[in-house]
Amino acid sequence: MHRRIIAPGALAAASLMLAIPASAASWSPGAPGIGDPYYPAYGNGGYDVSHYDLRLKYRPTTDELSGTATILAKTTQDLSSFDLDFLLDVSEVRVNGARASFTTSGQHELVITPRTPLAEGTPITVVVRYSGVPSTKSAYGFNTWHRTPDGAVAADEPEAAWWWYPSNDHPLDKATYDVSVAVPNGTQALSNGTLQSTRSQLGWTRYNWRENKPQATYLTTLAIGRFDITTGTSEGGVPVVNAYSKDLGDDDGAARASVERTGELVDWLSGYFGPYPFSSAGGYVPNTTTGYALETQTRVYYSPRQFASGSNASVVVHELAHQWYGDSVSLKGWKDIWINEGFARYAQWLWSEHEGEGTTQELADYVYAEHPADDPFWKVAPGDPGPDNQFDIAVYDRGALAIQALRNAIGDDAFFAVLKGWPQEHAYGNASVADFEAYAEKVSGTSLGPLFDTWLFQPSKPAAPAAKGAAIAGSAAMPQPRSWKKIAATNDVH
Ligand code: ARG
Ligand code: ZN
């Protein structure tokens, strides 16, 4: 009922008398996971982070990363101890200025016991001093820290943070960031948001980056290497910072011919999704070899492999679409991955139509026809694919097909109102597939349960393609249809 700070001495005395005060019984450890059934140990319970300040130093020759993380958070329960997710070597932890004891447990848990228990609702400042060689650390037998000939890159999904900063590693706990990294003169350090300043002294150059909008842990990126950095502003006024490894070889031209279009494509996507949600945009192409790109917030990670066949504006559209669908509006649980990938793929289909390379309907028909009924493609439910199929092609292609089916069922005006309204409805927050379904029902005034079930959840090929004007099986108009026309009027794209 009432909360009060108990001095550690008082607690010790109480337990000596074997009479623990009622309020002391509520001090308990924060959970080692945030409660995501796909990844039970990811994230933690008992507190909520508002800001990460990372002050780091990195040596490309040895892969040594060292520094201090200062984490601002608020407790959400009475805590005797709490966890951060982290793999590097910790030398000191302080909570509210006082040295705290710490230990490691599980695959990536740093368990912190403050000198004094923490009452629910208390603002806390956690300082973690650390160092380590990220390429030597694994959890569950894997490592997603990418070394390059001239540095390293942290960019992966869902696991990336453990190798470079301690965090509450789940998209449910978003926070703002200051990332400051010192690297040897001549090397660059990239991260999210705006480059506030750089400073060189004693042979090191420090890059100070700031992301001032809430950001999920896996969307926080770090890249160190020798980069050529370009800056500009989109026609619509969004500042753009891009970077290319000086070591891209034959891929350099195609990479620039794609990523330099970031400003144009941000403005083009704004027509569908509404105002760009962040204060900067851009991408970087380091000399890595991964097969994937990643929508790291404001500063997209591209692998040179995306440009091995020539320019690829489509992948830029995909990753920029995520800035609205995935980054500003993040998923609540990893099972909700469709609200990220289905829409980023659908944005590529809209781009294809814009470029005269196939309409969204043609692409939907192609995906439907391409996979026969016995193709395992239809076994994957994009609405809840399971952790092993989180990035299965079905989440993307069947996911986009579901969006075309939705469009055909509710009509273009309601559909484009949903597409633009959703990023506003949940801006800088979290949402689920069920939230999307409810929102589309609200805007369209149509009951959509059977449609979502057929296209996103059934482990089988829908009986008929996503045809225009198709009736929704078993659907009925909702009792009080909401007029979408007001929202549709603001859609200036189609
Ligand atoms: N969200 C990324 C994209 O769609 C996919 C990342 C997949 N991650 C991975 N490790 N394969 O561009
Ligand atoms: Zn994606």
Keywords:
494 residues; alpha+beta; Immunoglobulin-like; Neutral Protease, domain 2; eight-stranded mixed beta sheet; four-stranded mixed beta sheet; 11 helices; globular; disordered N terminus; disordered C terminus; binds arginine; binds zinc ion
Describe the protein in words.
The protein is globular, with a radius of gyration of 24 Å. The protein is built from 11 helices and 22 strands. By secondary structure, it is of the alpha+beta class. Among the domains are: 1-141 and 153-178, Immunoglobulin-like; 330-488, Neutral Protease, domain 2 (Orthogonal Bundle), CATH 1.10.390.10. Strand 14 and strand 15 (204-215) form a beta hairpin. Mean pLDDT is 92; it is low at 1-22 and 473-494. The strands form 5 sheets. Strands 6-5-9-3-2-12-15-14 form an 8-stranded mixed beta sheet, with no helix packed on it. A 4-stranded mixed beta sheet has the order 1-4-8-7, with no helix packed on it. Strands 10-11-16-13 form a 4-stranded antiparallel beta sheet, with no helix packed on it. It has helices at 8-16, 252-259, 262-273, 313-324, 338-354, 360-370, 393-410, 412-425, 433-444, 449-457, 485-488; strands at residues 28-29, 47-59, 64-75, 79-85, 89-95, 98-99, 101-105, 109-113, 123-132, 145-148, 151-154, 175-184, 188-190, 194-201, 204-215, 222-225, 227-233, 239-245, 283-285, 300-301, 330-331, 430-431. Residues 156-157, 292-295, 319, 341, 391 line the site of arginine (ARG).
